[in-house]
Amino acid sequence: MTELRRVANTEDAYLASLANMPETYLECRSTQHRMAITDAFRVVDSREEKGAWPHMGHHVYAKRTLTCDRCGMIRHDFYAISSRRGHTYLTKINATYEPPEGYAVTGLGRVEGSRGLVLGLGLDLGETPVRGRGRPRKGA
Asked: 56, 63, 67, 129: which could form a disulfide with 93 (CB 3.0–4.6 Å)?
């Protein structure tokens, strides 16, 4: 019983923190980010480049940076570089994120089912449910 109460309190605190977020942040949380490449691929050698560090044991890797055009989230993708039969192959090894100010919900840790809570906000806020090809339900 106490476990259920703790989960409910965590969900309530999470939803309360979402109430103060800009609409664009909620859109990105429910429909995912609209990432656009801001820095194209470049090869990084962490043994020679100042400020670079190995990723997942790879000292030489490819890196690119993407930014969400809606909320401003920045994602750095890191790729291992290999070659087969004269062709270069990139295999993703890691990604890091830089959230915009106010995007992160602090103090709660990982909230189980948080995506479902964000998606459910649309119904809780009284948005018109639709069916089929976007037609409103009868009686709505």
From this structure: 56
Q: Give tens-digit pLDDT for 82-97.
A: 998 999 999 999 999 9
Please give the residue range of the domain that contains residue 78.
33-108
The answer to whether residue 132 scores a pLDDT higher than 70 is no
**Domain presence at residue 9:** no
- As a whole number of angstroms, the distance between CA 11 and CA 75 comes to 27
CA pair distance 115, 13, nearest whole angstrom:
15
Q: Is residue 60 part of a domain?
A: yes
Question: pTM for this structure?
Answer: 0.68
Residues 105, 107, 112, 117: is their CA dihedral positive or negative? negative
Size (the chain), residues = 140
Asked whether the beta carbons of 112 and 102 are under 8 A apart, the reply is no
Structural domains of the chain, count: 1
**Per the domain annotation, does 23 fall within a domain?**
no
